[in-house]
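explain this:
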Amino acid sequence: MNAVASSLLKRLKNKAAVLPRAQQQVIAVILKDPEKALSLSVDAMALQAQVSMPTIMRTARQFGFEGVREFKLALAQDLGRTSLVHRSVSLEDTSQEMIQKILGGAAASITALQHQLNPRTLVEAAQLIANARRVDCYSVGTTSAFMADDLQARLFRLGKSAYAFHDAHKQLISAASLGTQGVAVAISHVGRMPFLLESATFARSQGAKVIAITQPHTPLAEIADVVIDVMVPPDAVMRVGTEAYIAHLLIIELLMILVLKELGPDSVNLQMQYREVLQQHGQDVDQHTWPHWTWPNSQKESPV
């Protein structure tokens, strides 16, 4: 972590007294409840601090950040170092306090994500996916692999030709064959896995568009044509914590709805057909109803 981002809460406390009154009011709001401050939009924070929105920006720049977004990321990282068990809890907390803090932290992160996401970026990514001849999903690691598989399965149900690759060799083969009508979606919260960067770079060099779902300012973000930023406080134990996991799932959900919108009525009709088929064959009901299997006798396998 760079010097600007380190120990931001301490710097806020130490420097507040020498700043203009309006900026002191902003800092007071942040220090009173840093978790809540992460979830506030610029206008909501300005309202709570009783200052103008430009004052929020000036406060962020006062501490060496380009904007409020970078300031909030540093604040989230600072909060993430408060515990070796979980960023919001300590072992001295009661079970009820732990539950409340963890769920509250997750809820705050989702609220913050709502304000951080750029709708235009999501729409641009959805349009690229909807118009692609093929969409290949790249990942590294268990969590990202689950996300890539989930994205591939959802795209498949939308009628898109989509594949998920977790292996370095397969990713390179995919990158070599996507072409100018293909899209690679690279999923990595860490955003700096070497062979994933190599595959994304090669795919782009072959004319494919690359969409990255990752943290801002990572090497993966620098490579991609479209970057969907995921900013959540770091987990105290895992490199990709629960809040990042939930945020990625929500982004995939948003993407799929927007892709469905781009594809139009035909894709909606496909969803209805899938549902009918699965219900007819007993796959989407509580009890599996064997009489609904309706293959002609000639197509049934003969007993061995």
Notes: The chain has two domains: 8-116, 119-265. Confidence is low (pLDDT under 50) at residues 1-6, 290-295, 298-304. Residues 95-116 form the longest helix (22 residues).
